[in-house]
Amino acid sequence: MGSPFYVTTPIYYVNDVPHIGHAYTTVAADALARWRRLWGDDVVFLTGTDEHGLKIQRAAEEHGVTPKEWADKTSERFRETWELLDITNTDFIRTTEPRHKMAVQKFLQRVYDNGFIELNTYEGLYCVACEAYYADDEISDGNCPVHKRPIERVREDNYFFKLSEFQNRLLQHYTDHPEAVQPESRRNEVLGFIKGGLRDFSMSRTSISWGIPLPWDESHVAYVWFDALFNYCTAVGYGTDEAQFNKYWPVNYHLVGKDILRFHAVFWPAMLMAAGEAPPQCVFAHGFLLVGGEKMSKTALNQIAPADLVKQFGVDGFRYHFLADQRFGPDGDFSFESMVSRYNADLANNYGNLAQRVLAMTERYCGGETPAARADGPLKSAAEQAFTAVVENFASLDFPEVSAAIARLIGAANAYIEEQEPWKLYKSEETEKVFTVLGDCLETLRIVALLALPIIPNASTELWRRLGLDTDINQERFPEAAQWGRGPSGTQVISGDPLFPRLEVS
Questions:
Q1: Phi, psi (5° rounding) for residue 216?
Q2: I need a surface site. Which of 16, 43, 62, 426 has the fewest CB within 10 A?
Q3: Distance, CA of 69 to CA of 63 (rounded, Å)
Q4: Inter-residue contact 90 to 46 (CB < 8 Å)
């Protein structure tokens, strides 16, 4: 087994069902996990659900069920959605699990024993939707700056985490590790927040019961963010399997939305430091996925269920759009029209067309038997350039550029066919030239299937089968697998139906 690699999504709050914003992050994490497996890494890929806090308690009350019943129902919706999208997470954690409760209490006790938690009285502005307090100067109109809903003034005795004591340590950490928050714009945002001065924050509640009790004072439950963030450590054995925890921690990537960046890049590393643990190697924060220029929300009535899009575009069509069209960093804007356009242009006309015509011509002109690729054909250079570009852009999580590099290789192969016109060569009985052209194109398709596997796994696996390759594509390993000429000759190809039928939308 190769090097340990640990990637996480946020764990999603069960106050509502999964929408395409959740799927956007999860598909990106899945593509990264699949990519690292292709290099032989020992990948842990975590997702799950956040199930404690006031929002859940109130949502359950509104629906006449217990918080646990509400959490069970909604958590299952997330599981079902990730299965639908072929998400290959190795663990799905729920914060109501016994393993998590035990780990959180051990962590809390350690932070408390280290002197970074103390009892105090707090009065301030609280957003139930954020499960977060805000300072008076952060509120301008009486509404939460994120959710645009009325904010509540709350007063209670709470235990406080001494975040203020970690201001200089956090600044030093980000000076020493500039890659620890990405992209750069988000790093600057985090640094600005830290330099503005950190305030101790309330990390317990007495006004609710739906949470994990503090081990030294069971009249208090842990603040939901203190509880939820620790899921990343629970899943790799904190408090139960020291060897496993030391193997995978610190996490390589937390993929999060920009609205929870502060929690992951300020609160979370400080909490870890307080317990004597290393902070994350990288928190990568992407922007909002907008619909018609608006952030998805229940009030805007523009939430879109992934299953509805999968019915029209298929799993791969869904995954491809959100990785090829939405840059992972700034805000992106979803539209059905752009999704159709991208699907038809890239998948149906480019990828699908290449596969269909090459496989069909191989059946017709070569008896379905794969000719050998030339050792130094014109497509070899294009394949090598594509591989280099895909490697570079996966390293920066630039998924649109990954997709573009693969599309350029497919385009080069389509152009090569148009230039060589193997149908004319066949009619003039230039059999060897036909074999040469199709051998080079089939080898290109083999490499395309490998490079595209993290993004469109179903089509890549099916293309691998149609190329007559009897190995498991998921067990192939880079860089050797992507080397030109490694594809076997003499395999029996299958043309079959189009991989990506064109969409005709009225």
A1: -100, -5
A2: 62
A3: 10
A4: yes
Question: According to the model, what pLDDT value does residue 144 have?
Answer: 82
Q: Are 319 and 346 in contact (CB under 8 A)?
A: no
Please choose, from the candidates 185, 252, 321, the residue with its C-alpha nearest in 3D space to the C-alpha of residue 46.
Answer: 252
Output the pLDDT for position 299: 43
Angle of the 67-84 helix axis to the 54-63 helix axis, nearest 10: 100
Average pLDDT over residues 67-88: 96
Distance, in Å, from the CA atom of 7 to the CA atom of 27, rounded to the nearest integer, reads 12
Residue with tokens 């006790």: 109
Cα dihedral angle (74, 79, 81, 83), rounded to 10 degrees?
A: -170
User: Count H helices, E strands: the chain?
Assistant: 19, 17
Let me know if 26 is exposed, middle or buried by CB neighbors in 10 A (0-12, 13-18, 19+).
buried
CA distance 56 to 67: 6
Preceding amide of 98 cis, omega within 30: no
* Whole-number Cα distances in Å, 8 to 33, 35, 49, 166, 183: 9, 14, 12, 24, 17
- Per-residue pLDDT, averaged over 295-323, amounts to 80
At 232 the three-state DSSP class reads helix
Say yes or no to pLDDT of 297 above 60. Answer: no
Question: Which residue type occupies 112?
Answer: Y
Structure tokens at 122: 């707090």
Count of C-beta atoms within a 10 Å radius of residue 113: 11
DSSP one-letter code for 200? -
Full DSSP string of 47-115: EEEE--SHHHHHHHHHHTS-HHHHHHHHHHHHHHHHHHTT---SEEEETTSHHHHHHHHHHHHHHHHTT
Phi/psi zone of residue 264: left (φ > 0), alpha (ψ -120 to 50 degrees), beta?
alpha
Say if strands 117-127 and 132-134 run parallel, antiparallel, or are unpaired: antiparallel
Q: Are 295 and 288 in contact (CB under 8 A)?
A: yes
- Torsions phi, psi for 119 (to 5 deg): -80, 140
Q: Which residues, at least 6 apart from 432, have a Cβ–Cβ distance to it below 8 Å?
A: none
Angle formed at CA 405 by CA 403 and CA 408, multiple of 5 degrees: 110
User: Residue 309's CB: how many other CB atoms inside 10 A?
Assistant: 20
Helices (H), 297-352: 306-324, 336-342
* Structural domains for the chain: 336-482 (1.10.730.10)
Count other Cβ atoms within 10 Å, centred on residue 197.
Answer: 8
Cβ 38 vs Cβ 1: under 8 Å: no
Contact 63, 362 (CB under 8 A): no
User: Which residues are marked as active site?
Assistant: 19, 22, 127, 130, 144, 147, 295, 298
Q: Tally the C-alpha atoms within 13 A of residue 335's C-alpha that lie toward its C-beta.
A: 7
